[in-house]
Amino acid sequence: MQCSLVRTLERFHGVCAHAKVTSLCSTDKMEELYTDVPFVEQSADILGSMEPKTVKNICDRVMSRLVAGNVKPQLDNTEVNKVSKLLERELNEVEYLLTTISTIFLKAASYALKSHNFLNSLEYLSHFSDDGKSALHAAYEGQFQNLLTALKKDSVFPSRLESVDWHLDVTLAQSGLKRTKKPQIIMNLQMADSGYNPSSNLTVEMDEAKLMQLFKTLDTVQRNMDALSQ
Q: Where in the sequence is the domain holding 209, given as residue range(s)?
């Protein structure tokens, strides 16, 4: 049993070491990705009335703001006023538009969608024109890695796993007249928190059954990562 536990732990550590990001989605759930994006219909109507070049400029502007570290869908009044004057649009329309585009980019990046998966996901934004989808994809494709970096720095991702240490705690348990060995796995996870928070340790204790359940979950995560990496 002990050898089996050791092998499983080694595989668990390998899965964690391979992980570059901590949040992923399965492609078969992609249609649910944008269900809670605000103002989609209003923004689609606004984009549909613009020239393709203007749509591209707006998407690039939003992405530049996110990459620069302003990784929140909420906008300050200064930005809204600038774009409102630029587009000659009402303030509320501009706020709808910029919030929607920002949220789309942040949603996709928080699930680490690569360029081709992001393009596929845009098919579920049925209200958007082809020009709108093309502009979104072009902006995202050019800045995907930079956006991921900005998100990680701003704590949009959870704490990241830096290292795993473990040992077996073998205790003797009395069961009637029979003494049995029941190994427990003690795992110490070194977490690197985003931003300025210090690193922290998380200690977990589990038996073989719980460990195998955890590994099955991680195996599913690994398959999804491999699929998105292709």
A: 2-21+158-229
pLDDT of residue 29: 66
Q: Residue 76: pLDDT band by 50, 70, 90 thresholds?
A: confident
Contacts 24+ apart (CB under 8 A), 115-123: 115/140, 115/141, 115/144, 117/27, 117/30, 117/228, 118/144, 120/27, 120/30, 121/30, 121/33, 121/34
Question: 114 and 17 in one domain?
Answer: no
Q: Say yes or no: 143 and 165 in one domain.
A: no
Gap between the Cα atoms of 193 and 187, Å rounded: 18
Give me the sign of the Cα torsion angle 19, 21, 23, 25. Answer: negative
Please name which of 78, 102, 80 lies closest in space to residue 89, comparing C-alpha atoms.
Answer: 80
Residue 184, H or E segment: strand 178-192
Rounded CA gap, 222 and 20, in Å? 11
Q: Is pTM beyond 0.85 here?
A: no
- Rg of the chain, C-alpha, whole Å: 23
